[in-house]
Amino acid sequence: MHYHDGHFWGMHYVWWIVWIVIGVFFFLFYSSLFQVTKKESPLEILKRRFAKGEITKEEYEEAKKVLDS
User: Fold this and answer.
1) Taking a C-beta distance cutoff of 8 angstroms, is the pair 43, 64 a contact?
2) Is the distance from CB of 63 to CB of 45 less than 8 angstroms?
3) Which of 67, 14, 10 lies closest to 44, judged by CA?
4) For position 29, what pLDDT does the model report?
5) What are phi and psi of 48, to 5 degrees?
6) What is the pLDDT of residue 56?
7) Alpha-carbon span 30 to 23, nearest angstrom
8) Given a cut of 60, is residue 2 above it in pLDDT?
């Protein structure tokens, strides 16, 4: 073992790597599990489908009338 001023240098680097891996894991996986997902309203779904081109303008306007009533 190589000691320098009372620290084992190899283990020092290992702990930095461990903390970085834990931080990346928490950021990527753990935090995404607890995100609150917003539920889309029917009108928002309709707008999204129209924007994607899945429905025509006439279909959009007809469905919007139905949803508004």
Assistant:
1) yes
2) no
3) 67
4) 79
5) -65, -45
6) 95
7) 10
8) no
